[in-house]
């Protein structure tokens, strides 16, 4: 069973020459905008192996010399695949850590002595407890010391590093704001180990380790920027498109304390190691025509022309030969013969993505339409990772499918229970208790007992505590009720609303269980029963919580099993990927775009607002202060404006989709 098919989704196939150049001359040419040596790999695994190969060689070299190898490491999740590869080689008998000294790059502060959510504990769980390192060779800041002693403690920590001859290597991830270790924006290049306040964005990133953002300690003791730069070799890693923007600033931007990672540009042996997704905003990947000659695919031509429109502030059909020549796109003139020919080709391609008939228009020529006219009506399944993703991501399209006569089912893949605040439970418990008193004279003993029990639990609940099963069940029930209300508003029959409650989600924590066969079989049972002609799945592969990716992997794995079983219904099925509140598809990848009128956008907003628990009181709104309906509308309006700016039809808002080829 293939459980990670989403990792094989490649929307823009980057030629190998742009991330794995054959010669030093080619590398010099394509990296002309980069100020830190940056190695790009197709997968996280390949990137991790490249780092571990170097570490293994250096550790063994020091062993031969009878010397210690001094490492500083962070405990961020981006380092986990590297730790796993190091552990794998150790267990295979290829690598010993007897001569390795480890310094933890940072520790949270203040910490109670009994607090288990320490950086060093995470490091032990993921790495140190699985290798043969001497416990006496592990050094970490102490988050339990008195605040008055921190300054002297940090000085001694620096002295301890120097006593071993300094750091041979430091291995770090990078935060979304460019923080390395916990050196937040504003950190000076001259800083050494010190106490620092953790900013809100970093706290939001760290909450997975603590259960909630509020439980993350306010400060940390961190190695300073100067301490990091003193290492003889530096590796900074980042995986996934979520880190693409900050990687561009780090590698191609100016050196500034607003992006502490940019100080790596001043080091003579710093290396940024990333996958293609994290590299997606680097010039050689996003705009390869600016660094070398390109093999022009339809998508790359579309991307180039959209970029040209944006920098010239012209619609597509007004671009001239001069615009192409002055902006590095003369190759396209040679390819198409003139700007006019290229303009018409891309204009038509984009125009053909727009449709008001997401399920296909019956009895119409579908040659240039993204969806087939037949069969009609279609059986449709919309898979929604959380109980509101369907309306947030494609609420306008969902209503159109129903109104145009298709047989629409919605499958809510997870309960979404951890995204419900405790006050919502209290509110509903008061209602149930009041109902009992009004209509049963308060004589229902089950309600009385549960009311008392749950009220006591919530009153005594501490930050970071996992909800009881009863509380999680009630939270899931609240979300089910909201989903049913929204579905009814969208005219979807309740017998077409399916709650799958995939088991991987039910950990009670932000960090979920691995997605497995049980999850896939639940999804497969549904799709093999309905035999849909259309499936919609989440394409938010950079979802901060990871739930969207796992849910999509479950659907893709189920489809793959049906394909292996040679299911006939698959021949008539198309799979469309949508994106949610986090991001929109790049325009070069959009294959279907469904417009909305002001009235349709208003109806979409109403359906989102039916999910009352996900408004201001929702625990996991992310680092974006806008509510979900506001994010969704802004995103849909931005897509419509982009089409308008390119000279296409002007709509109030648009929802975009990319086809997944089964």
Automatic annotation (TrEMBL):
What does the record give under GO molecular function?
A: glucosamine-6-phosphate deaminase activity
Quote the PANTHER family the UniProt record gives.
GLUCOSAMINE-6-PHOSPHATE DEAMINASE-LIKE PROTEIN BT_0258-RELATED (PTHR42892), GLUCOSAMINE-6-PHOSPHATE ISOMERASE (PTHR42892:SF1)
This one is known as Glucosamine-6-phosphate deaminase-like protein
List UniProt keywords, sorted A-Z: Hydrolase
Q: Name the domain of life this protein comes from.
A: Bacteria
Occurrences of domain Glucosamine/galactosamine-6-phosphate isomerase (ranges): 50-269
Q: Give its E.C. classification number.
A: 3.5.99.6
What's the short name of a Pfam family annotated to this entry? PIG-L
| Top-level enzyme category | hydrolase
A single GO BP: N-acetylglucosamine metabolic process
């Amino acid at each position: 069973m293939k459980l990670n098919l989403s990792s094989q989704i490649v929307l823009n196939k980057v030629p190998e020459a742009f991330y794995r150049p054959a010669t030093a001359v080619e590398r010099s040419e394509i990296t002309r905008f980069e100020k830190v040596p940056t190695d790009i790999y197709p997968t996280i695994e390949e990137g991790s192996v490249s780092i571990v190969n170097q570490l293994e060689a250096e550790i063994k070299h020091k062993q031969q010399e009878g010397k210690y190898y001094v490492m500083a490491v962070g405990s961020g999740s981006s380092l986990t695949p590297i730790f796993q590869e190091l552990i794998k080689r150790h267990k295979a008998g290829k690598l010993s850590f007897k001569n390795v000294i480890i310094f933890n790059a940072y520790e949270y502060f203040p910490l109670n002595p009994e607090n288990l959510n320490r950086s060093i504990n995470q490091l032990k769980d993921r790495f140190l407890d699985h290798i043969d390192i001497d416990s006496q060779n592990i050094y970490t800041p102490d988050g339990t010391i008195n605040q008055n002693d921190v300054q002297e403690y940090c000085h001694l920590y620096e002295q301890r590093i120097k006593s071993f001859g300094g750091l041979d290597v430091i291995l770090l991830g990078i935060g979304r704001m460019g923080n390395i270790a916990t050196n937040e924006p504003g950190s000076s290049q001259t800083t050494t180990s010190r106490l620092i306040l953790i900013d809100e964005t970093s706290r939001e990133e760290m909450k997975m380790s603590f259960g909630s953002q509020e439980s993350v300690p306010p400060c940390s003791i961190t190695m300073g920027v100067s301490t990091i730069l003193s290492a003889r070799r530096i590796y900074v890693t980042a995986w996934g498109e979520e880190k693409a923007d900050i990687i561009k600033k780090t590698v191609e931007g100016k050196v500034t304390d607003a992006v502490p990672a940019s100080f790596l540009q001043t080091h003579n042996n710093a290396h940024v190691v990333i996958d293609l997704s994290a590299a997606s905003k680097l010039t050689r990947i996003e705009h390869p025509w600016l660094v070398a000659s390109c093999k022009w695919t339809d998508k790359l031509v579309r991307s180039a022309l959209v970029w040209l429109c944006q920098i010239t502030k012209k619609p597509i059909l007004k671009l001239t030969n001069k615009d192409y020549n002055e902006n590095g796109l003369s190759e396209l003139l040679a390819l198409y013969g003139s700007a006019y020919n290229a303009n018409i080709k891309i204009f038509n391609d984009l125009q053909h993505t727009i449709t008001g008939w997401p399920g296909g228009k019956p009895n119409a020529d579908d040659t240039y339409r993204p969806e087939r006219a037949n069969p009609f009506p279609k059986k449709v399944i919309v898979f929604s990772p959380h109980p509101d993703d369907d309306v947030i991501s494609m609420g306008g399209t969902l209503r159109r499918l129903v109104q145009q006569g298709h047989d629409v089912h919605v499958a809510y893949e997870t309960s979404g229970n951890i995204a419900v605040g405790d006050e919502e439970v209290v509110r509903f418990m008061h209602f149930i208790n009041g109902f009992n008193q009004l209509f049963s004279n308060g004589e229902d003993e089950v309600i009385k007992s549960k009311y008392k029990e749950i009220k006591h639990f919530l009153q005594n609940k501490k930050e970071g505590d996992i909800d009881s099963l009863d509380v999680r069940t009630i939270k899931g029930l609240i979300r089910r009720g909201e989903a049913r209300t929204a579905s009814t508003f969208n005219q979807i029959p309740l017998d077409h609303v399916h709650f799958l409650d995939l088991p991987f989600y039910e950990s009670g924590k932000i960090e979920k269980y691995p997605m497995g066969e049980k999850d896939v079989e639940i999804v497969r049972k549904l799709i093999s029963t309905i035999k849909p002609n259309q499936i919609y799945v989440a394409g938010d592969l950079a979802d901060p919580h990871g739930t969207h990716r796992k849910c999509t992997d479950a659907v893709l794995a189920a489809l793959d099993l049906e394909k292996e079983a040679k299911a006939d219904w698959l021949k008539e099925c198309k799979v469309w990927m949508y994106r949610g509140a986090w991001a929109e598809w790049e325009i070069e990848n959009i294959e279907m775009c469904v417009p909305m009128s002001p009235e349709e956008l208003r109806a979409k907003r109403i359906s989102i607002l039916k999910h009352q628990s996900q408004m201001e009181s929702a625990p996991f709104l992310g680092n974006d202060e806008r509510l979900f309906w506001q994010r969704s509308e802004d995103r849909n309006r931005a897509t419509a404006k982009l089409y308008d700016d390119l000279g296409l039809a002007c709509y109030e808002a648009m929802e975009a989709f990319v086809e997944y080829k089964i």
